[in-house]
């Protein structure tokens, strides 16, 4: 049995996928305070990565680490929404899934901070 929602192909699929992605970003902005905070920081940090990075690799590391935080936050929100869709009942597996998602966000934030602090130290603090 095939999925009736998977009938689009080619350009039509790309247009619809883009619409769904934009809807997801707007929804995350409206409903997820952590995403708003991280997106606001990203709005400052992404342009700063162009100034701080001395070459394409450094800019990519700085910007990529910021974007990774947003990506992981969106995935965490998706896991939480799916768990809540199933049940609001307290359950060990639900808690585990949500805690794993939260831990992933924490690790992405730590990775981002290490990239930024490492490059800042190299620019400003290294003798």
Write the CATH architecture name of the largest domain.
Orthogonal Bundle
- Oligomeric state as shown: single chain
Structural classification: mainly alpha
Q: In CATH terms, what is the fold-level topology of the largest domain?
A: Helix Hairpins
Rg for CA atoms: 18 Å
Order of helices and strands: HHHH
How far apart the termini lie comes to: 65 Å
Major sheet summary line: none
Mean pLDDT: 94
Query: What fraction strand?
Result: under 5%
Number of domains: 2
- CATH class category label of the largest domain: Mainly Alpha
Spans where pLDDT lies below 50 across 5 or more residues: none
Q: Percent helix among the residues? A: over 70%
Q: What's the helix count? A: 4
The dominant shape is: globular
| DSSP, total strands | 0
What does this entry show, briefly?
This protein has 127 residues and is mainly alpha-helical.
How would you describe the overall organization of this protein?
With 127 residues, this protein is an all-alpha fold. It has 2 domains: 1-31; 33-125, Helix Hairpins (Orthogonal Bundle). It is 84% helix and 0% strand. It has 4 helices and no strands. The radius of gyration is 18 Å and the shape is globular. It starts with 9 loop residues before the first helix and ends with a helix. The model has no long low-confidence stretch (mean pLDDT 94).
């Amino acid at each position: 049995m095939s999925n009736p929602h998977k009938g689009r192909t080619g350009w039509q699929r790309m247009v619809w996928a883009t619409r769904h992605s934009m809807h997801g970003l707007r929804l995350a902005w409206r409903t997820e305070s952590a995403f708003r905070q991280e997106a606001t920081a990203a709005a400052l940090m992404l342009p700063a990565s162009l100034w701080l990075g001395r070459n394409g690799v450094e800019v990519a590391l700085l910007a990529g680490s910021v974007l990774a935080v947003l990506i992981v936050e969106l995935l965490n929100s998706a896991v939480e929404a799916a768990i809540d869709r199933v049940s609001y009942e307290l359950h060990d597996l639900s808690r585990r899934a949500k805690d794993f998602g939260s831990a992933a966000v924490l690790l992405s934030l730590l990775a981002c901070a290490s990239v930024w602090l490492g490059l800042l130290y190299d620019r400003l603090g290294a003798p």
